[in-house]
Design a protein that fits this description.
188 residues, alpha/beta, Rossmann fold, 5-stranded parallel sheet, 9 helices, binds adenosine monophosphate
């Protein structure tokens, strides 16, 4: 089954974990914008240097930079052939609109958006437990707020476009994944 998926949920909602399970069973290419940015930081590329200050402060990288990076990735042959599963993008409505327009130009569309719903308390506990270098308590709190403001309108956006599927993200991993599979296997 080749589809174009979007994973939605605040940082710590478990998108990455579910993404790993999905790619083991389905052909879609997992594209994490956070991972791409981190790889560019590590390799000290021009893109990484542009993104660094925003990422260090826990802010979103400007849309212009992020959209161009995503557009470039989506035109690569593995994605064209197998479809995609976007993780961490779009993060705001402008990015969502850019993506829709980009896909329309390529005679494609978003097949489904999986929204992993998790309470704030659980999110903070999970992020603190992850121990990434940018996961200090202050940065986490700030990142949650920034992401909430930008991210929650996306839930409305995709609901209006009739592609939203809400998944309870607080259960055990296998139960969550079995709910994900039910959604994916039900897509036309
Ligand atoms: P993540 O691993 O998804 O939390 O991403 C880590 C950091 O990369 C974020 O805090 C942002 O600075 C940047 N980033 C990742 N995805 C996006 C996006 N869609 N738009 C803007 N910035 C992003």
């Amino acid at each position: 089954m080749t589809k174009n998926l979007i994973l939605l949920g605040l940082p710590g909602a478990g998108k990455g974990t579910q993404a790993e399970k999905i790619v083991a069973d389905y052909p879609m290419v997992h594209i994490s914008t956070g991972d791409i940015f981190r790889a560019n930081l590590r390799d000290k590329t021009a893109l990484g240097e542009k993104a660094r200050a925003f990422m260090d402060a826990g802010n979103l990288v400007p849309d212009e930079i992020t959209n161009a990076m995503v557009a470039d990735r989506l035109t690569q042959p593995d994605v064209v052939k197998n479809g995609f599963m976007l993780d961490g993008y779009p993060r705001n409505e402008e990015q969502a609109k850019f993506l829709d327009q980009f896909l329309a130009e390529h005679e494609e569309a978003v097949s489904a958006t999986l929204y992993f719903k998790v309470s704030d308390d659980v999110l903070v506990q999970r992020l603190l437990g992850r121990g990434r270098a940018d996961d200090t308590k202050d940065v986490i709190a700030h990142r949650l707020e920034v992401n909430k403001k930008a991210n929650l309108p996306l839930v409305d956006y995709y609901e209006k476009h009739n592609v939203l599927h809400t998944i309870d993200g607080e259960g055990d991993l296998d139960t969550i994944y079995s709910n994900v599979k039910t959604v994916l296997d039900g897509l036309n």
